[in-house]
Every structure is written in C-alpha cells, then in structure tokens.
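[Discussion] Sanity-checking designs against the backbone

I'm trying to build intuition for which residues belong where. Below is a structure token string of 90 positions. I'd appreciate it if someone posts a full sequence so I can compare it with mine line by line.
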C-alpha cells in the first residue's frame, strides 16, 4: 500500500511540472511573469504541504494520518492533484 502512495505523490509532482510547462509555454496562458511565478510558488508550497501531511504527519501535526476522518483524508488526497492546477489560473 505504501508504494501506491509514493506513486500517487510522484504523479502529483509530474502533473505540477507538466502544468507549469504548459502555463509558461502555451500562448493561451500569456500573462504577467511575476504573477505566474507567484501562483507557481503558492501551488508548489501547497503541494509540499499536502505531501508532508501524507508522508510524515506525526512530525507536522503530531498525530498519525490514519487518525483523521475519512473525509479529511480524501480531501488531502484530492488536494494533491488540485494544488498544481493553481498554476494555470494566470
């Protein structure tokens, strides 16, 4: 089960890289470069935060990940794939 979690998180970082590549190179997403960098940074920080909560919750929030409610766990797992999409806003 742990290997599935790592592949899931690896897929999220791959999605982050792809979304940022599209955001910076596709003419449909032309905007102010400073704004793009800010949104990419916020997206990366959220992704790192979600990853740390999933991988080492005892050091971050001092309780195991399994002690969260099912709803909270699902929201965190979905957030891992939603966070990279913030980079496409601008």
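Best answer:
Here's mine. Compare freely.
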């Amino acid at each position: 089960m742990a290997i599935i979690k790592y592949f899931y998180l690896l897929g999220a970082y791959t999605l982050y890289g792809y979304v940022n590549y599209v955001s910076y190179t596709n003419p449909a997403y032309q905007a102010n470069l400073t704004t793009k960098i800010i949104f990419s940074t916020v997206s990366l920080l959220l992704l790192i935060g979600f990853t740390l909560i999933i991988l080492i919750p005892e050091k971050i929030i001092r309780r195991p990940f399994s002690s969260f409610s099912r709803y909270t766990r699902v929201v965190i797992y979905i957030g891992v794939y939603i966070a990279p999409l913030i980079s496409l806003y601008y």
